[in-house]
Every structure is written in structure tokens, then in C-alpha cells.
Amino acid sequence: MADAERDRVLAESGVSRETGEALNLYVEQLRRWQSVKNLVGPGTLSEVWSRHVADALQLLALVPEARRWVDLGSGAGIPGLILAIAGRERPGFHVKLVESNARKCAFLTETARLTTAPVQVLNKRIEAVMPDLEVTDIVCARALAPLQQLLAWSEPLLKKGAIGVFPKGRDAAAELTEAQRGWRFDHDLIASRTDSDARIVLVTNLSRVDA
């Protein structure tokens, strides 16, 4: 069953054989480290390909021209490390993985080495690293914080022209309403390919309501 799920996800993603092998190595690493690092919810490991890998890969199709990504609160590398593995054959593709937990950074660093993923692992708090980040194409985060907080963290990059790509669950519309109390921004709300209740929020042109 797991092999069939993997084969389906890889076929639908259209990645090369080499990239498919690297993604398979990522999943093997995730399972190996999970027992001691608790990287993802234990109940999701049986559906890792559809629950995590496919969920991350769908983001590439939304912004196909993007090359420079910043992933906040990377954790187990979802979506950032998965995106880097899938995008490594694209010239100039690079992902900065921001993660404050040193043990999770160890997983990210080792797995990126094994998969030759083009990443830089930043073992710092988001607030500490954000002022030093240069202009980027995309800032993303998954299962990290409400949209209002994500916008506050991402403000320096979004104001420089980055697009915010934020996968959200069934409460996406409510989070949008709450965020609009403090922020002005343009957005698209896109249905997830992997969860009928989930949405992906794309954010541009951010400014504060009281600015």
C-alpha cells in the first residue's frame, strides 16, 4: 500500500526518476529520525506520501517561476526541504529553512546533505533571522501559526515583493477575516489538491491597517 501511494504521488508530481529517489530517501530519513526526534504527528507516518510529500509538492505548481524560498518554522522540512528536493534541478532554486529547534536542524542538515537539496539551514528564531534575510520570491509556512502572526513575521519580506504561500486547514476563511483586522493585503484562496477541507492562502501587497 505504501509503495502504491509513493508511486502515485511521484507520477502525479512529474518529477524525474532521480528526484523521486531523493524524495524516497527523505521519507526514509523521516521515518528513521521520527523514533527519537518526534518530527511529525505519529499518526501521519502511514500516509506520509499523500499527507506530507504531495501536500508540499503542490505549492511548486502555484508559483512555478519562483526560485528563492524562505520556509518559516521548517520542523521536519515540510514544505521547505521537500520543495528544495523537488526544485533542485531548476537553475537557481534555493530554500532557506528557518528552525529554532537544534535537533530538528540536525535532521534538516543531514537529510539535505544526503539528498543534495539546495538549502541553507538557519538555527534561529524567526524574529532574530528576519531582519538579515535578503529579498526572496516566496515566504512560506505550514502548520506554524495563525495567518495574522505569519503576516507579522513575514512583513519585511512581503513588503519587498515576496509572495506569501501559507497552507491552511478548514479555518482558512476565519483566519483571513481575523488577519484583515490588522492588515491590508491582496490574496487568493486556493483549494488544496490533497485535502478537500484545506486551502492555500497566497498573499501579496501587505501593509498595516494603521499605516
TrEMBL record:
It comes from the Bacteria. Its main location: cytoplasm. Keywords: Cytoplasm, Methyltransferase, rRNA processing, S-adenosyl-L-methionine, Transferase. The keyword Cytoplasm applies. One of its GO terms (biological process) is methylation. It catalyses: guanosine(527) in 16S rRNA + S-adenosyl-L-methionine = N(7)-methylguanosine(527) in 16S rRNA + S-adenosyl-L-homocysteine. It is found in: Cytoplasm. S-adenosyl-L-methionine binds at G73, I126, E127, R142. GO terms for molecular function: methyltransferase activity. Its EC number is 2.1.1.170. HAMAP family: 16SrRNA_methyltr_G. Specifically methylates the N7 position of guanine in position 527 of 16S rRNA. NCBIfam families: rsmG_gidB (TIGR00138). Belongs to the methyltransferase superfamily. RNA methyltransferase RsmG family. This is Ribosomal RNA small subunit methyltransferase G. The gene is rsmG.
